[in-house]
Please model this.
Amino acid sequence: MRKLRVAVASVLAGGLLAWAVDTQAQGAGKLEIFSWWTTGGEAAGLLKLFDLEKKQHAGLEIINATVAGGAGQNAKAVLKTRMLGGDPPDSFQVHMGKELIDTWVVTGYMEPLDELYRQAGWDTAFPKGVLDLLRHNGAYYSVPANIHRANVLWYNKTVFQQSGVQPPGSVDEFVKVAEALKAKGITPLALGDNGIWAATHLFETVLIARLGAEGYRGLWTGKTDWGGPGVKQALETMVRMLAYVNTDHAARSWDQANELVIQGKAGMTIMGDWVDADNLARGFKDAGWAPAPGNAGIYDALSDTFGLPKKTPHRKEALDWLRLVGSREGQEAFNPLKGSICARTDCNAKLFGPYLQWAMEQWKKDSIVPSLAHGAAAKESWLSAINDAMSLFVTSRDVAQAQKLLAQAAADSGVGKK
Ligand code: GAL
Model:
């Protein structure tokens, strides 16, 4: 009898122990998420996702591995060192399109996610155009959290009203508005290119204005000549616009440039819609927006996505994270704070502020083109050659030299060659 009691007790104890270990394994996992989301609006969106993830997985410890600097200006290099050194985070922020596919997928660093897509029914939850940019050889490689719009002109409504100007629809109108602001002692255009990507970002909106959607797309397929008159005109336009930027642009970040607009020291800035999130986080309610000059009807798009690196230390937790990122609940919580619209097609528009509701409408009807500065249009080596050309150009303002460098960068990229 006593023996039996001992045996039962030990089975029970073993069971309890196994149960305890099991719950611990299920509940108290770890998850390291790598991104460059550190500014007010960016962090707000990310932390909201973390909250949801923790609610769904009690006891989960999330390591928020961020490296500050817009557009991943510093994060991408840190990530590369980690990935190449065999020390991947569990999941990381990566742009849809060339950045994902050329940098990480064809090089063999990512796991395909077809099983996850199948389980979650994501084949039909996202637009086809987005899905196509996440696929390689028929397999899915990351989960889109959002869609951002890069070509937005943000302005201070009071400053515009007091200066008697309207948001400029074209480049010529931009110059008129800029002159009017300048006459009032206001910096017309705020730029923060301490990471040169912000100048490239401005330039891509000017390329769109000068080449149109078709011509701009052709830059990435070899159909539009980088040495041709359209690009020359775009560079000349850049020179005109750069004449109106703050003198300390090279010392500021994109959000420090937006600060000039918030303070009314500058009239406008041309930047992606993460500015909407920045304004929200800072409680600034006086921002107006319009397509960047000459960009009406064209949506210059990018998407922040998360993937699953091979040899990730916490695979189960990483897959749970990806499930949340792609879910309706996750996207409806994250995007209103992040200044982006859902990549999914079934989000409730009422949860979003006025700018984002406008963006959702444009997304449905505009012609969509891929962003250069944010990884969709060109592979990273090509983008970094363009960034180098822009670095020189913003100081030299030498159109011929810049065009030569851009044409060379295109040739080096192998664009248009089979
Ligand atoms: C982009 C990114 C956005 C936003 C922005 C500024 O590259 O896709 O989510 O964070 O950089 O940092």
Observations:
- The longest strand covers residues 30-35.
- Residues 36-37, 42, 70-72, 148, 272, 274, 302, 304, 374 surround beta-D-galactopyranose (CB under 6 Å).
